[in-house]
Write a structure and sequence with these properties.
Helix content: 25-40%
Protein name: Lipoprotein
Structural class: alpha+beta
Strand content: 15-25%
Shape: elongated
Organism: Myxococcus fulvus
Largest sheet: 3 strands, antiparallel
Distance between the termini: 58 Å
Length: 80
């Protein structure tokens, strides 16, 4: 019974905004995180991947690029 009550209270606080999530992120931090997630094109080229996958990346000169995974038997990233 206590477990059900604890779950209900936790859900109620979360749903009603009673739990703080911490400091909000600045837009600059969000943009930086997005560019870091994109990754470096140079680092991706030639590494193994799952065929049919696509991703975006950033070249060393700052330009955006795209990478696709080559089909079997190669299974390596090809970026352009």
């Amino acid at each position: 019974m206590r477990a059900i009550l604890a779950i209900a209270v936790a859900f109620g606080l979360t749903a009603c905004g009673g739990v703080e999530t911490g400091e909000p992120m600045a837009p600059e931090a969000t943009e930086q995180a997005a560019s870091e997630l994109a990754g470096s094109c140079e680092a991706l080229v030639g590494t193994f991947c799952r065929p049919g996958a696509f991703t975006s990346c950033t070249w060393s000169d700052g330009n955006l690029g795209e990478c696709e995974c080559q089909r079997t038997p190669f299974n390596k990233w090809l970026c352009y």
